[in-house]
């Protein structure tokens, strides 16, 4: 891993909306990346691209003025990362989808597995290119937008991250921040859908699984082949003040 470095960091301030790149991200006290998935749409349950197509086409980013959200029609609003910002965003999004409210949580946020694991997700750039090569008309950036990972590592081979999932494997040090690989990221229907329109690509999951099966390390850690990416827990001592930066050296810890 001599050449392994952080190539990209991406945050998703509103769960289900497209995210945006950042040069650096602070690790929160809860063990997530600051500003990642702090807002979510809610209608009897937290909504994402698996549960409603209405979130597709929206994009959210962190700006000096706060949270910026852009609609599929190009309309834009900037609100604060606070409850007042939540109320303004909810009013702006009224009816999208119908009877939906907006939630805000500045603790663990609305990351997947929030009830048991505050996490940061990691994938290699080579993995994105490899998956893209399996599908006509989808490039690496298209895969990136479908998989919605936080930290992308360059200088390593495809599926490099598999070696850090499960028990008895080394941890990762990312710029001195210790990330403990907990489990591979099992996938849902979201990667099968166009990240801009929500249109489902027929046969995506089946072809993905067929292509992925030869590279899956072991059945004990990987109980299915429809999986890609690594779910990490940030070590307790690195929470609250540590920063992840593009260009950080990545090595075994």
Automatic annotation (TrEMBL):
Pfam family, one: MOSC
GO molecular function: catalytic activity; molybdenum ion binding; pyridoxal phosphate binding
Domain MOSC positions: 71-253
Protein origin, superkingdom: Archaea
Protein name listed in UniProt: MOSC domain-containing protein
